[in-house]
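Example 3.
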Amino acid sequence: MGSRSSHAALIPDEDSLRRETGFSQASLLRLYHRFRALDTNKKGYLSRMDLQQIGALAVNPLGDRIIDSFFPDGSLQVDFPDFVRVLAHFRPADDEDAGLRDPREPEPLNSRMNKLRFAFQLYDLDRDGKISRHEMLQVLRLMVGVQVTEEQLESIAERTVQEADEDGDGAVSFLEFAKEEEENGSGRQLVVSTTVCLKTQLPGRFLVMVISVWNYWKLLGIITTTAFIILL
Amino acid sequence: MGFQVFVAFSPWNLLLLLVALECSEASSDLNESTNSTTQHEPNVQFAAASSEPDENIPVFVLDYDYVQIPYEVTLWILLASLAKIGFHLYRRLPGLMPESCLLIIVGALVGAIIFGTDHKSPPVMDSSIYFLYLLPPIVLEGGYFMPTRPFFENIGSILWWAGLGALINAFGIGLSLYLICQIKAFGLSDVNLLQNLLFGSLISAVDPVAVLAVFEEARVNEPLYMMIFGEALLNDGISVVLYNILIAFTKMHKFEDIEPVDILAGCARFVIVGVGGVFFGIIFGFISAFITRFTQNISAIEPLIVFMFSYLSYLVAETLYLSGILAITACAVTMKKYVEENVSQTSYTTIKYFMKMLSSVSETLIFIFMGVSTVGKNHEWNWAFICFTLVLCQVWRAISVFALFYVSNQFRTFPFSIKDQCIIFYSGVRGAGSFSLAFLLPLSLFPRKKMFVTATLVVIYFTVFIQGITIGPLVRYLDVKKTNKKESINEELHIRLMDHLKAGIEDVCGQWSHYQVRDKFKKFDHRYLRKILIRKNLPKSSIVSLYKKLEMKQAIEMVETGILSSTAFSVPQLAQRIQGTKRLSPEDVESMRDLLTHNMYQVRQRTLSYNKYNLKPQTSEKQAKEILIRRQNTLRESMRKGHSLPWGEPAGAKNIRYLSFPYGNPQPASRHRRVAEFTDNDSSDSELPSIMFKEHSQRDLPKETQEIIPMKSLYRGRKPTNFRYQRNTSQEEHVGQGRRAALRPKPLFRAVDEEYESGEESAEEASAIGPGWPPEHRPSREHHKSHSPLLRRK
């Protein structure tokens, strides 16, 4: 426990970061550890390569796009506050009403709209605020297995855009995208459990508890066990 | 339902049944005749053509008794296999009921035949056969196919639930049955407390693996899956330990009274037996992992070592009166990780299949034997005992589930919901284990053994058939969100995208649980264990070892077949219709959606799908292959575009089809050859690629030698960009600076590196140029070179 608080002091601007992202101290600390673990040669920031080293991400069909979303505007490195800000999108949305919040404050990162915006970015490669048919096709190519032909994909992309496109410009704008998502509510599900709460590291705490109890009773325990063995 | 199954594949079955029937009839005839003529002399040979036994050599001899046991066992297994084929031919059936139902039906059928023909079944099962030959493969298989990581992430809950749950169930059922037995009206007053406890311990050995197949289809969450799996894995061990201790008590009780000291000793023994078993298992696991380190030249004995050491751990533990089951489980879990990296691809496959096969044979035999002993006169039907057993089993399982999970939920970050608990409660399917233990009760100590066996059979039949069949619908019903139908293509696509995104972010965040404990183990593992146990020159992380298993050749074939099969698809017409009309009928949308659902990549699952009776081709591996190849393609594309490397000129058009996906880009031929050549670990396999690629190898060789100098300088100068393209595939753990160098040799991606190295190869100064390149890497490439002379000289 003592080491925990001393670690916490290492995190730069911890308080403001907590206010901004809404992460608890424990979560932030854990993310910080993770950040440092990913940071291979202790540069203090992450490069694309660091993220690409995550094995499971390499086989994620959207791996590249997810990595790209950590590096907005073509930057080559992401520091800890930015890292946390991106992850904050995935905290569960707060239940409180919008009315209760101070309207001057910016919308929290984990709001529904921001979650959707994050997902929208994954489609919108050229950042023009629209998902064109071509961009949709590229996403499909990433996500669909080789068994499907290019023609099929094209027709599906065509159809997907058509379905959501309301103003008839042949592309899906963010509003249209959000509306689409409104209907099926998938944006709300965009919550990643790993970053959610982390009460504490409970199995670990359980172990600590067992060990401390063990320490008290060690002597007695050993004596009884040996007695049993002798009896046997 | 059972009847339907039978009807579905009756033709084969009938045939085989006839054979079996003939044989058993023949043998019973034989037995009768021998009995009548020779007055119970064992092993009398029946010579059909000899009237004077000793003078002439008989022309035709029929000696059925000699082959009876293996003959009938073979027939049973064959029958069960054919039944399984039939079972899986009808596609919806496996989703409806667990496969153990089928085995039991087949067993009952065989039993009916044997009973009908008054034929005595061969003594396949007695105590020593069961514990020495039939049980170990089943347990070994469970331990070996256990998904290690999720298991250890949930180990606290699993131990808590599987260990304590089995104890609560055993003692709860035993004690409450004892109370029931005290009621005079039921006529059970001669069953004493110990016998009841023993019955409780054997009836609490659940075998929920049968329902895992159902879970997989319903895609239940991972902790729940692991709970059930862990229970299946540990429960057997705990029940058997308890059973053996109680048997010992019963034996002792026959001669003297049990004192409190004995009970305490029994408890201590329980702990020691369990812990000692695990200890021996771990030791043997390490030994076998260490030995496979040196088997690269005789890879044919690799599977043998794995099996023999597992079995040895079981035997040694049993010799010392420790729990062999826990030993063999621990052994499998320990060595799996290291052995898989050490052994060759073919041995790995062999081990997997052989393990499945052995366990499936064992289980089939037990189930058939269960069927055989179902039909017959050896039953004692006591309504009160059987009904109360059935009810108490459910009641105590409910109590233990809800009580234990209430406690363990206090310690979990993501507690098990009530739904999860209901599913766990309902998955308490009894299986082969309970029956075997009941069947093996010594008759001398248990005068009412028949009643116990009958009650066990009833419980098994009830749970396997009724619960096993209804649990699928129950899971689907409880899991409401899976059932509502998707509305649009958009939704389908977006939801999957969100899932991938979520999975990706989760990977970025890393695992939360056991973070420090696991980290410590990882460090220890890296520092000591791996150095000792694993061959040198091997990639260091598990995902890399996955790639090691992926063969590029296969991948190429897969891509090709993918292209071929997709051209046969009929949807291009559909596409044209879309262009033309712009209005889609619902059916078209439907078909598109189906296409998407079936072909979109699955979200990564850490728990690989597990099926007790079958090894499915791992779709996740295949998918990983596809994604990796694709990525590499796009990588190369961007590389060529971005940096205009010297070898960037497009090669002949005939190569395109090898590695290109439908939208892949043309590749220079030399790279193909390298890729194919390199991943070609087996010398026997090297023919195919050499044929495939030989047409361009000729042209490429001189070019390569010319390029030595530019490449080398490029390799040095370009280091940063080079790294950028290295998908270093280490499993999300921190990889220190020093270790990265060691991580560099990695299959698949090495294809990229290989290009940089191609110059060095002919100049033979690799170690001087690539400082991070381990020198052990050399010989292996020499090896490959030497194995493809055809390729080189053509």
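Chain B touches chain A through 96 residues (CB under 8 Å). The radius of gyration of chain B is 31 Å.
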